[in-house]
What we know:
The protein is mainly beta. It has a single domain (4-218), classed as Lipocalin (Beta Barrel), CATH 2.40.128. The protein has helices at 29-34, 211-218, and strands spanning 4-8, 15-20, 49-52, 58-63, 68-73, 79-85, 100-101, 105-109, 138-142, 148-152, 171-174, 177-185, 197-205. A 4-stranded antiparallel beta sheet has the order 3-4-5-6, with no helix packed on it. It has a 4-stranded antiparallel beta sheet with strand order 7-8-9-10, with no helix packed on it. Strands 11-12-13 form a 3-stranded antiparallel beta sheet. A hairpin with a 5-residue loop joins strand 5 and strand 6. The longest helix is centred in the last third of the chain and has 8 residues, at 211-218.
Amino acid sequence: MSDSVLALDLASGRILWAKQTTPGDVWTSGCSARGDCPGPDHDYGSSVLIEKLENGRDILLAGQKSGVVYALDPDRKGEILWQVRVGKGGVNGGVQWGMASDGQRVYAATSDVIRGGPNPDKTDPRPLPLDPKAGGGLTALRIGTGEKVWYTPPAPCGSRPGCSPAQSAAVTVIPGVVFSARWMATFAPTPPSRGPSSGISIPFATTPPSTESARAAAR
Length: 219
């Protein structure tokens, strides 16, 4: 049941059904270091949302680290109603930190960060440098059909060190506005005095935003 959505009976905890979307995805940091992982690490890193369609039926919305958002029918043992790719996916990619919905659309932020290259110093505990030009974005989908309503890229990193433009943190929705935080992190051999990371919360209108408005909000 790896990479699966499960339904449990609230009274007993019994598994009622399970829907697996990526079979055979076995991945740990140990096999990754050896380069022999049989899976791409496309597990589910965020909670499933439950909404209602116009016909009154429930729908489950699940975002996977593969970069795919699924709509499942909870009354038909997780039957896939639609699936839409919103990111490239990967170990640090896809949907990781949670989506949000306003009942009409689901908003999925993706990471898709790319490490800039191998670290030549094998004794350096810091992770590989981030590519400041590679990252994810924020996509709005209609919950009934999976139709893409809009997509917006995150504000660019510019010359800031240790930055990725990934829109990788959780998403929050209030009437008319979507909030998504860009995760930026720098790591040092010793703990930094102000913590290892900082985030910028970027508000977007639930109607299609422009790139310039997103950049202005991030400043």
